[in-house]
Amino acid sequence: MYSERRKFARQSTSIRVEMTHPSFGTLVGYTRDISDGGAAVQLEVDVLPPVGTQVQVVFHKIGGQINEAPVPMQVRHHNNQLLGLMFLPR
């Protein structure tokens, strides 16, 4: 029998993401889904940050930023151009 490991329900949505780190600058992508625990982000580049990298993320909607201050997140996994990011405590 299949067991769902996720702690949080995911919501399918497309939100513009700007992910920043001192070693690579800013990468831009879009969420595929988001939850209280993290987000799946499709990037527009081929070079991805390594698993475990802590990044600062700003979410944008058409009318502007969703969050004023960048949110700390960690790269948990990636496959092709899709990243799994986990929210970190501030």
UniProtKB/TrEMBL annotation:
Transmembrane segments: none
Domain PilZ: 4-88
SUPFAM superfamilies: PilZ domain-like
Molecular function per GO: cyclic-di-GMP binding
Superkingdom per UniProt: Bacteria
InterPro entries referenced in this protein's UniProt entry, alphabetically: PilZ_domain
Protein name: Type IV pilus assembly protein PilZ
Organism for this UniProt entry: Simiduia agarivorans (strain DSM 21679 / JCM 13881 / BCRC 17597 / SA1)
Phylogenetic lineage: Bacteria, Pseudomonadati, Pseudomonadota, Gammaproteobacteria, Cellvibrionales
